[in-house]
Write a structure and sequence with these properties.
This protein has about 325 residues and is α/β, with parallel strands linked by helices. It has helices at about 5-15, 45-60, 75-85, 105-120, 140-155, 165-175, 200-210, 220-225, 230-240, 245-255, 265-275, 285-295, and strands spanning about 15-20, 25, 30, 65, 90-95, 125-130, 155-165, 185, 210-215, 260.
Length: about 325
């Protein structure tokens, strides 16, 4: 397995994805959720999160995916400072955590606090984390999106988007949006491809409307639902390309034109990710083979209480 990044292969196999606002987003991101999730801000500062994030940055990860609800924006900010990489070379993401309507905090209030914790004066991408607050209506989706548009217009968020939105949420938002969401971050992997029995293909809807997709939990078949039908395909292709099965899982996402988020607490694994991922590409037939292998198996790693067990939305 490759131990260093070949610049030519990296540029060829891991280029940036161009968004509908003309900006570009790196195809692979280091996620501050899951393994780095801290939760309530009352928990003490966690140096381990800082150290892991610095390791990721020094291993070549420039796309850093954070969120208010992860409770670790201060740690992400400390890592950005400690890594010593120029700000203009980093792609920093954070997300607004929608509050109950009884809470008087505005999106602007939450965003200003996020910037303070991160120690930066702007982020590259700001997302609404989910559309599932109690009693949500189309009008509320639209008004909150308008607040996010105002933040972009202020220059403090270069690009804006959403997360965990389904087709109805996107349709409602698009009805009044003056700025189209650039991206929707969703759980996406071979066991949750969002193509349902009633004909809704969420990814295709994004393509049709010029909205990019980023995938969290892309390695769910390996880490949360092992033993399923994609394992054999992953292992076969891992042997073919002399990489790990997880690398094949990430390339399946990337080679489908979708941004992939990943994380790890292992320094060794973080250092291997980018050399491995830039050393190969899956063919269209191999992407299709993995898609077909996972199509009839359903597993959702997150938001399980929000969806019925058989809901593939």
């Amino acid at each position: 397995m490759a131990s260093a990044i070949d610049p030519a292969l990296f540029a060829k196999n891991l280029p940036n994805l161009k968004l509908n606002d003309g900006t570009e987003i790196p195809f692979i991101a280091y996620g501050l959720g899951t393994a780095n999730y801290k939760g309530p801000s009352s928990k003490p500062f966690d140096q381990k999160i800082v150290d892991s994030t610095v390791t990721a940055i020094k291993a070549g990860f420039t796309h850093l995916d954070g969120a208010e609800v992860y409770g670790n924006e201060e740690e992400l900010g400390a890592a950005i400072k400690a890594a010593g990489v120029p700000r203009e070379k980093l792609y920093i993401v954070t997300k607004y955590n929608p509050k109950p309507l009884t809470d008087k905090e505005t999106v602007e209030d939450a965003f200003a606090l996020s910037l303070k914790k991160l120690g930066v004066d702007r982020v590259d991408l700001y997302l609404i984390h989910h559309p599932f607050w109690e009693g949500v209506t189309d009008e509320q989706l639209q008004s909150r999106w308008a607040e996010v548009e105002a933040i972009q217009k202020s220059g403090r968020a270069t690009t804006i988007g959403v997360s965990n939105y389904l087709k109805p949420h996107l349709e409602a938002t698009l009805k009044t949006a003056t700025i189209k969401p650039a991206i929707n971050q969703i759980e996406f992997h071979p066991y949750l491809q969002h193509n349902t029995a009633n004909g809704i293909d969420l990814v295709q809807f994004h393509h049709d409307n010029g909205i990019a997709v980023s995938a969290y939990a892309p390695l769910t078949p390996l880490v949360r639902a092992p033993g399923g039908p994609v394992d054999a395909v992953y292992n076969k292709l891992a042997a073919k390309y002399s990489v790990a099965a997880g690398d094949v899982g990430l390339r399946w996402v990337i080679d489908a034109g979708i941004v992939a988020l990943t994380t790890s607490g292992s320094k060794e694994r973080l250092q291997k990710y980018l050399p491995s991922l830039s050393s190969f590409k899956l063919t269209p037939d191999e992407v299709a083979e993995i898609s077909a292998a996972g199509h009839d198996t359903h597993y959702r790693a997150f938001w399980q209480t929000t969806f019925a067990a058989d809901d593939r939305s």
